[in-house]
Design goal:
It is built from 8 helices and 10 strands. With 243 residues, the protein is α/β, with parallel strands linked by helices. It has a 6-stranded mixed β-sheet with strand order 6-7-8-3-9-10, sandwiched between helices. A hairpin with a 5-residue loop joins strand 1 and strand 2. Helix 3 crosses helix 4 and helix 3 runs parallel beside helix 5. It is globular.
């Protein structure tokens, strides 16, 4: 089976001039690819392009072998995502939100209770979403993204607001999905954490992918900042400015 997600020369620019350029990478079945970059590097824009929330102005995004723009609605049910904030109806309970998310993706609603147990949401399952703590909201969003057993998982900073126990739970669930053949793309600023589960760690700086990070070193943070510094200096020498 080929790549589940494939970017080929993808570029997108907002009216203010920020954006991403020449993005090229792929994520295979059973693979966890982590995306690392400073705030403003373009990680969320890349995620939105992967999910069809933005359309490439240059290049091509393919999901399951098809151009994302041509992907039928049913195929999007094979995708699980959480970008920026968990999508939910504030007046509905956790359990109700999970059921709706499952139905929208064509999943088996019997998995809702599995998700409640797996993500340790039973104490708040009948509480309205708007009354949840930030951590419980995030776990609800993650449960909604993964409960239907998607073939592609796209998560933007999924560790936000999670306590240490929930971070370990997240790691376990992502490893589980990858073990079942899902392709996983996850962005994070927690270098040590993603290094534990990622098959590849891609570096992003100022709207471009600048290579891979070797996760076998002792000081990942120092190696990351050094690569970013080198890229900044190269661009300044080449007169690329601050794009």
């Amino acid at each position: 089976m080929g790549e589940v997600l494939d970017f080929s020369g993808v570029g997108f620019r907002f009216h203010g001039g920020t954006g991403v350029d020449d993005l090229a990478f792929h994520v295979d079945p059973g693979e966890v690819v982590a995306l690392i970059g400073l705030n403003g590097a373009g990680k969320t824009t890349l995620m939105r392009l992967a999910l069809g929330m933005l359309r490439p102005q240059r290049g091509r995004v393919r999901l399951f072998g098809e151009p994302s723009a041509d992907l039928p609605d049913a195929a999007w049910g094979r995708v699980g995502a959480l970008v920026e904030v968990p999508p939910a109806y504030p007046e509905l309970t956790v359990r109700e939100n999970l059921r709706i998310a499952c139905l929208l993706r064509g999943g088996d609603t019997r998995r809702v209770e599995e998700a409640v147990d797996r993500w340790r949401l039973a104490p708040v399952a009948d509480r309205r979403f708007r009354r949840l703590s930030l951590g419980d909201r995030q776990r609800t969003g993650l449960a909604a993204a993964l409960q239907h057993r998607p073939r592609l998982v796209v998560l933007d900073e999924p560790g936000n607001a999670l306590d240490p126990a929930s971070v370990i739970l997240l790691r376990e669930q992502l490893s589980r999905r990858a073990g079942e053949g899902a392709a996983i793309l996850v962005s994070s600023h927690h270098l040590d954490e993603v290094a534990r589960i990622a098959d590849r760690v891609l570096l992003m700086n100022r709207g471009r992918l600048i290579g891979r990070l070797d996760t076998t070193g002792a000081d990942l943070e120092r190696a990351f900042f050094e690569r970013v510094r080198e890229d900044d200096e190269r661009r300044d020498r080449d007169g690329e400015g601050t794009r």
